[in-house]
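Handout, section B. The chain below has 251 residues.
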Amino acid sequence: MDKLSENVEITGKDANHLANSLRAKKGDKIIAVDKAGNTATLELNDFDSEKIYAKCVSEIKPAEIFNKHITLADCLPKQNKFDTIVEKATELGVNRLEPLISDRTIARPGNFRAKTKLERWHRVAKEAAEQCARDTLPEIGNIQELSDWLAEIAPSLGKFENDKFDGKGALLLFFYEKEIEDNLAEILYNYKNFDGDKNIIILIGPEGGFSEREVREIKNCGGVSVSLGKTILKTDTAAISALAIVQYELN
C-alpha cells in the first residue's frame, strides 16, 4: 500500500489475498501498513472484481523511529538459500539487506536472473513482515561485487580500536572463520554502551569463506573481524545466528 488515508483502495495481490485466501467480507477490520511504515485499522466497505474499498477507523500512527539500524550484507549462497536469509532477517528486524558477490561466491546470476531474484526477495520480505506483524519492510540492495560495495560504504564507517568506537560512522562486523579471538560479546557490549545512534553492518562470507585479499580489503575499510565460535557454520546459518546475537545484545 502506497499511503494510508481516510479512504483506501486495496488492489492487486493484496486484494486477491484478502478476498480469496482470507475470505474477507464487508465489515471486517484489518491492520494495514503503508510503504512508509505507518499503521492504521481499516474497515472493509465494498468489493468489486479488482478492488476492495476500505475506510480508516483508527488514528494513522506514523512509523516509529529507532536509534538502531542494522544492515545484513551476505555473499550469495548456492541455490535459493538467500530466500531463507531474507525471510528470517525480516523476522529478526533487519533494516537493509545487501546481496553480494565475492571471490568464492558460486551463485553469480546474470542481469535477467538478478532482476527476477530481487523481485522474489521483495515478495519473501513482504510475506515475512505480514507473518510477524512487522510495520516496515527491509530495503534490499542490488546484487553487486563485494569490492564495489566496500568502496561505496567505506566513507560512512567508523573505527573500533583499543576496545573503543570512535562514533564517526557505522560499525562493520565481518564474521571470519579464521578469527581466533572470542571478541564478539565484548565488542557488542562496548558498542551498546556507546552514546549515540547504533548503525551496525553484519557481513557474512560465502561457502568457502573470504579470500585473504578480501580480508585485507575489509580490514582496510575499518571492518572488525569477529567469530561465531569454533564450529564452521553454513553461510545461511551464520547469517541468521549473527543477526540474532547482535539483536539480542543491542536490545
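Note. The radius of gyration is 21 Å. Compare this with the example in section A.
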